[in-house]
Design brief:
Helix 6 (about 160-175) crosses helix 10. The model has no long low-confidence stretch (mean pLDDT about 95). With about 400 residues, the chain is of the alpha/beta class. The chain has a 9-stranded mixed sheet with strand order 3-2-4-7-1-8-11-10-9, sandwiched between helices. It has helices at about 25-40, 60-65, 85-95, 135, 145-160, 160-175, 190-195, 225, 260-270, 285-295, 305-310, 325-330, 340-350, and strands at about 10-15, 50, 75, 105-110, 200, 205, 215-220, 235-245, 280, 365-375, 380-389.
């Protein structure tokens, strides 16, 4: 059964806070849920499916369904890191198509900033039951050095430069200046990025995303319900998901799981990369964006550096406007699973509700993609293609 057009995104909400020392994670989830339901014109009593990932407190969906007093008949808590929430939109569409639910609520929230988490630079103990931990943890892997390995390899293989990577941050900053909630609103230059301190060679401080509190929520509904709501109808047109690991030692750091999830989404949607008018790309680091753009087919492998240079990602300037809210590089990155914000900004663009300075004219086809886990070891990729009907 084709899932194309089987579900619509009816509600979207991004929490305005970037630091919430006075709120629990559960409360942030609930406030995001209320915002998305109000945006859709629905109430919690309409919800019969609930979706979350590893950021949800306690027992995940069981705890949150109880906390928010929801009465649902379907739950899903699949967790693949930063790509979880793009994948959960796809899972919600699948559940709706299968008749498991009619109104799916998806929520994300976190407080890494208030809790003082060194998200990218502190070694993570990992789960002792993971088969890889006993071999990798003695070397003190951190998120940033796992991504830095990919950047170094990409530079070695293809001649990519730090200046080219810097253009990704520059583009994000041009967009963030128009977002009153963004953590970093100052426009930066290529020189600013490459002159910022090295965190893990070759990545600089400004190649890294922000750490914020906050969250977001989405409401996905079946077509019959979407047609009754007084909201622009945003159709889920295509979806794909895929893991990438160490492949039994056949390690290749130059590509991501987007190589597999992207083509699947484009095939379902029946469109090509050249048709996409706006792209939300997960931006934990600048190298994350560059590799995903290549793997999704926006440019040839190894040509990403040239593709992003000279402002090609800046709305109103370049060919492919990206992350017009400022993204994780400048706006926010809550809960270490910030992929939901990629979908939210894509919905804004398709509705014509992005800031006037960054709104893509007559935007009717958008892509959102997330990478979750470690780009240098094992991770998941999830791709969504959405259309304004």
């Amino acid at each position: 059964m084709s899932l194309k057009g089987q579900a619509y995104i009816a509600g979207a909400f991004e929490h305005p806070t970037r630091k919430a020392p006075d709120k629990s994670v559960a409360l942030l989830h609930a406030e995001c849920a209320a915002g998305a339901l109000a945006d859709a014109g629905l109430t919690k009593d309409d919800v019969d499916g609930y979706f979350c990932a590893g950021d949800a407190p306690g027992m995940g969906p069981l705890s949150m369904v109880d906390y928010m007093n929801l009465k649902v008949r379907h739950v899903d808590a699949t967790d693949i890191g930063g790509s979880s929430y793009l994948m959960l939109v796809a899972h919600a569409a699948e559940a709706i198509a299968a008749g498991r639910c009619n109104v799916a609520l998806i929520t994300l929230a976190g407080r890494p900033r208030s809790e003082g988490q060194a998200t990218g630079t502190a070694p993570r103990p990992g789960n002792p039951y993971q088969p890889d931990v006993q071999f990798e943890f003695p070397y003190g892997p951190t998120v940033v050095n796992m991504y830095a390995m990919c950047a170094a390899r990409h530079m070695y293989e293809y001649g990519t430069t730090s200046e080219q990577l810097a253009w990704i941050k520059v583009a994000a900053s041009h967009h963030a200046q128009h977002n009153p909630h963004a953590m970093l609103r100052d426009v930066v230059t290529v020189e600013d990025v490459v002159n910022s301190p090295i965190v893990a060679s070759p990545l600089h401080r400004l190649d890294c995303c922000v750490i914020s509190d906050g969250g977001g929520a989405l409401v996905v509904v079946k077509p019959e319900i979407a047609r009754t709501l007084n909201r622009p109808r945003i159709k889920v047109l295509g979806m794909g998901e895929a893991p990438k690991g160490q492949m039994g030692g056949n390690v290749d750091l130059t590509y991501s799981a987007a190589r597999y999830s992207g083509p699947a989404a484009f095939a379902m949607a029946g469109v090509k990369p050249a048709d996409i008018q706006y792209a939300s790309i997960y931006d934990s680091f600048t190298i994350t964006v560059l590799m995903q753009l290549e793997d999704l087919g926006f440019c040839e492998k190894g040509k990403g550096g040239a593709f992003v240079a000279d402002g090609n990602l800046i709305s109103g300037v370049g060919k492919l406007p990206f992350n017009t809210d400022g993204g994780g590089l400048c706006n926010n990155h809550p809960a270490n699973r910030g992929g939901i914000t990629k979908v939210i900004e894509a919905v804004r663009q398709l509705r014509g509700e992005a800031h006037a300075k960054v709104q893509v004219p007559n935007c009717h086809l958008a892509l959102a993609h997330g990478t979750g886990g470690s780009l240098g070891t094992r991770h998941g990729g999830a791709t969504l293609i959405m259309e304004r009907e």
